[in-house]
Design a protein that fits this description.
The structure holds two protein chains of two kinds. Chain A has two domains: 6-225, Rossmann fold (3-Layer(aba) Sandwich), CATH 3.40.50; 239-355, OB fold (Dihydrolipoamide Acetyltransferase, E2P) (Beta Barrel). Chain A has ten helices and 20 strands. Chain A has helices spanning 44-52, 94-98, 100-104, 109-122, 138-150, 168-185, 196-202, 220-225, 230-235, 351-358, and strands at 6-15, 18-28, 33-37, 59-64, 67-68, 79-82, 156-160, 188-193, 205-210, 213-218, 240-247, 250-253, 256-259, 269-274, 279-283, 289-296, 300-307, 312-318, 330-335, 341-344. In chain A, strand 4 (59-64) and strand 5 form a beta hairpin. Chain A is elongated. By secondary structure, chain B is mostly helical. Chain B has a domain at 88-247: MetI-like fold, CATH 1.10.3720. In chain B, 76% of the residues lie in helices and 1% in strands. In chain B, helix 8 packs antiparallel against helix 11 (220-236). Chain B starts with 6 loop residues before the first helix and ends with a helix. The chains are: A alpha+beta, B mainly alpha. The A-B interface holds A 52-54, 74-77, 79-81, 83, 85-91, 93, 100-101, 104-105, 132, 145, 148-149, 151-152 and B 191-192, 195-196, 198-206, 209, 214, 217-218, 220, 289, 293. The structure holds adenosine-5'-diphosphate and magnesium ion. The site of adenosine-5'-diphosphate (ADP) has 11 residues of chain A, from strand 2 and helix 1. Chain B: Belongs to the binding-protein-dependent transport system permease family.
Chain lengths: 359, 293
């Protein structure tokens, strides 16, 4: 089974006044796993459905290995899909669900069964063939759906938030398994998710979408470390917004001068985007900030600080360093010396909103 | 209509009983369930039993089943019964073929038209049968003689063929629409139609395949109840058939009942039991597959 190259070319799709896709351009290299990441309603599902053939773009084209498939009906496309909601046929048992596509293609019964057994083995459910969907847990149902999507040996695998209905533990285990499967089959995979951690942990490439447009595409580390825009910076991971002042290619923020990376707005008054892990906190009686809250996260602790001029910011530090930084204590902080993104000054926005968007 | 009405609620009573909760409550629920069941049974069985006693109890000869035996030899019995069954079968097929694809199309590609379809399908409930018949007979009288050679005229003649009056099927399809719509709508609401259809399309299934292998098997209960209600409607419909001058089973019962009192009651009981049996067969056919899985 070999992966195909998938290209989105200027895809546009509107629903009445809503613009779901606004000129999406994206190329997925053969055999890679790309995560389409973005807030709810940014057009991820619509983009995926254009590849599957359930949605027809108003303009633009979808190409599979260079061939325009925009007008090919859904049942003749070479793409297997796993849906967000449970989608197994309730009247069929697991074997028959997996073999559904083979049956449509009139594959002989013995061969169908062998292939279904092989696929169930692959997704880790070798003994569940005789069960019915309602006798399976959510995670098992999505595994079967994955086996069904792979049954026809498609050259593209489409996953529309396949893990969003599952609980945290199963979600992590299953995403690792999907990645392992994808690597061993070498199938081009488009994985839609609104969970940045999920995207960063399994994908070769992460494509961040915003309002139907591509905001940035790159390897996970690149998107995280060198976000192209403030939107990406705040959506992928958590960001602090600190007031700063532009001065040439540098910005003055919290008493430090940091190099600026990326575009700068026209005004000198800007917001500087700083990751919580690049805020170095030390307990100090004469520090310029006070600890407001402290939340323990196992290996690390996240502190919410308020500086004397009223700015609030988040800081992550190793749990063993945080013992003396209980709420109410004073602390000093410093920013790691590395390039930062700046955005136009917004009204003082508490970091809490950034956290909510990222979690 | 009269002999059929009790069949549906009586069958539904046990299923409607609430599930038991904790110990003490469970007991109370059981007692009340018994009371409700007994009251309903009394209400439905008293007229049935008295009717039955009346038919088998001859003032002169005592117990006799003559009234029942007479039914089978009475003129027109087999003919009218077969006519009614044929009409019911044709109506079920036509009404399902009309509504199911329409409802699927609306659900999948034009959800905003759903209220429109709903209103159209419910409309027959508010049109009195008399008005309905008056309309039909007016239309049937349209064909003036100089049109005699045209296909239109011949169609009008053909649908009135007394051996199998297709015009009744047309009328019954309209009358059954509200019930069929409700049943199918509930059935479609219970499954995620869009996702199932898309999953099947994604597996390479053509539209007919999707309909036959995915929608219909998962809509079994809804289809059974739609057929069930249509059957009950056709076996009990009197007004339209009588006023258009045909003689399906319900009309035949009324015709025959004038001549012999015991027999007319016997016919009613017979038709009730017969309809019950048919409905039972239909409803088990609809549910067997699900509980078996
Ligand atoms: N069938 C539809 N009818 C109307 N609006 C739709 C339809 N599908 C999607 N939309 C709208 O298009 C936008 C993008 O939707 P979607 O692609 O599902 O977003 P995502 O998957 O990123 O959450 C949303 O605003 C949504 O409301
Ligand atoms: Mg979505």
């Amino acid at each position: 089974m070999n992966g195909a190259r998938v290209e989105f070319r200027g895809l546009r799709r509107t629903f009445g006044a809503t613009v779901a896709l606004d000129g999406l351009d994206l190329t997925v290299e053969p055999g890679t796993l790309i995560a389409l990441l973005g807030p709810s309603g940014c057009g991820k599902t619509t983009a995926l459905r254009c590849v599957a053939g359930f949605e027809h773009p108003d303009a633009g084209a979808v190409l599979l290995d260079g061939k325009d498939i925009t007008r090919v009906p859904a049942n003749r496309r070479d793409a297997g899909m796993v849906f967000q909601s449970y989608s197994l046929f309730p009247n069929l048992n697991v074997y028959d669900n997996v073999a559904f596509g083979l049956r449509v293609r009139k594959v002989p019964a013995a061969k169908r069964r062998a292939r279904a057994a092989e696929l169930l083995e692959l997704v880790g459910l070798p003994a569940h063939g005789e069960r019915y969907p309602h006798q399976l847990s959510g995670g098992q149902q999505q595994r079967v759906a994955l086996a069904r999507a792979l049954a026809l040996e498609p050259r593209v695998l489409l996953l529309d938030e396949p893990l969003s209905a599952l609980d945290a533990k199963v979600r992590v285990a299953l995403r690792e398994e999907i990645r392992r499967l994808q690597l061993s089959l070498g199938i081009t995979t488009i994985f839609v998710t609104h969970d940045q951690e999920e995207a960063l942990s399994v994908a070769d490439q992460v494509a961040v979408l915003r309002s139907g447009r591509l905001e940035q595409v790159g390897a996970p580390a690149e998107v995280y470390d060198r976000p192209a825009t403030p939107f990406v910076a705040e959506f992928v991971g958590t960001m602090n917004r600190l007031p700063g002042r532009l001065d040439g290619q540098e910005v003055e923020v919290a008493g430090q001068r940091l190099p600026v990376h990326g575009e700068t707005p026209g005004t000198p008054e800007v917001d500087v985007l700083v990751r919580p892990e690049t805020v170095l906190v030390t307990a100090a009686y004469d520090g310029e900030a006070v600890v407001l809250t402290s939340s323990f996260r196992g290996a690390s602790v996240r502190l919410l600080l308020r500086t004397d001029d009223g700015t609030e910011l988040l800081a992550d530090l190793p749990a063993h360093d945080a013992a003396r930084l209980a709420p109410g204590q004073r602390a000093g902080f410093r920013l790691v010396q590395r390039p930062v993104l700046v955005g136009p000054r917004t009204t003082v926005s508490p970091p809490a909103t950034a956290t909510a968007a990222a979690d | 209509m009269a002999p059929l009405t009790p069949a549906v609620p009586a069958a539904a009573v046990p299923a409607a009983a609430p599930p038991a909760g904790r110990q003490g409550r469970a007991r109370r629920v059981r007692v009340w369930r018994g009371v409700v069941l007994a009251a309903a049974a009394l209400y439905f069985l008293t007229p049935l039993i008295t009717s039955f006693v009346f038919t088998v109890n001859d003032p002169v000869r005592g117990f006799t089943l003559d009234a029942y035996l007479e039914i089978f030899s009475a003129e027109g019995f087999v003919q009218s019964l077969l006519l009614s069954l044929g009409l019911a079968a044709a109506t079920i097929v036509v009404v399902l073929l009309l509504t199911l694809p329409a409802m699927l199309a609306v659900r999948l590609s034009a959800p905003r038209l759903r209220p429109v379809l709903e209103v159209i399908c419910t409309l027959p409930l508010v049109v009195p049968p008399i008005t309905f018949v008056a309309g039909i007979s007016t239309v049937l009288r349209w064909g003036p003689d100089h049109l005699a050679a045209t296909p239109f005229y011949q169609t009008i003649i053909a649908v009135q063929n007394p051996a199998f009056p297709a015009v009744l099927v047309i009328a019954y399809v309209v009358l059954a629409l509200p019930f069929v719509y409700r049943s199918l709508d509930a059935g479609l609401g219970a499954i995620d139609v869009r996702t199932l259809v898309e999953a099947a399309r994604n597996c390479g299934a053509s539209w007919p395949h999707v309909l036959l292998r995915v929608i219909i098997p998962n809509l079994r209960a809804g289809l059974a109840s739609a057929s069930f209600l249509t059957l009950a409607l056709v076996l009990g419909e009197y007004t339209v058939a009588r006023l258009l001058g045909y003689q399906p089973f319900p009309v035949w019962i009324v015709t025959i009942s004038g001549s012999n009192a015991a027999m007319s009651v016997a016919v009613s009981i017979f038709s009730l039991l017969f309809a019950w049996l048919l409905l039972l067969v239909l409803s088990t056919a609809g549910t067997r597959k699900r509980s078996g899985s």
